Amino acid sequence: MITQDFTLPKYNWHVKVYYAVTTYWTSRIINELENIGCDGIELRRAYENLRRGDLNTGLTYSNLNMGETVMVISLTSSSPQFLNSWLHEMRHLSRHIERAFKINPYGEEAAYLAGEIGQRMFPVAKRFVCEYCRKRLM
């Protein structure tokens, strides 16, 4: 597993990303989710998702009041599948921020936000987009 922390300064939003997650990391991630206020059915759903250990899955939970997000991308079966999971989870993150700041999801600000998220994640995520690099990480 590889972790990444970054902040989106314009929104004072902190993101913790877990890449290549296996069931081994369930307790650590559940603890992190609890720390940002995830509870009840959402926490139970996250726990069940993480414990199954399925390939090509992920989750993104955000506390809109705290400006905190935990994102998880599981192990993936291929580089294209990683890209699919990465884009899927990034979309959840951008939508959470759009909701918190009442940003029009069809406007320019939302498009710039999505681009900034991608740029922040790219230094780590690029290792999973290349099939040769991805296999060397596993």
- Compute the number of strand runs: 4
* Mean pLDDT value: 96
What proportion strand?
15-25%
Cα-atom radius of gyration: 15 Å
Judged by helices, strands and strand pairing, the structural class is alpha+beta
Largest sheet: number of strands, sense, barrel closure:
4 strands, mixed
List segments where confidence is low: pLDDT < 50 over at least 5 consecutive residues.
none
- Name the helicity range: 40-55%
Order of helices and strands: EEHHEEHHH
First-residue to last-residue Cα separation: 9 Å
In the sheet with the most strands, the strands line up as 1-2-4-3
SS summary, helix count: 5
Question: What is the 3D form?
Answer: globular
How would you characterize the overall build of this protein?
By secondary structure, the protein is α+β, with helices and mostly antiparallel strands. The protein has helices at residues 26-35, 40-52, 79-100, 108-129, 131-137; strands spanning 2-8, 13-21, 58-63, 68-74. Strand 1 and strand 2 (13-21) form a beta hairpin. The longest helix has 22 residues, at 79-100.
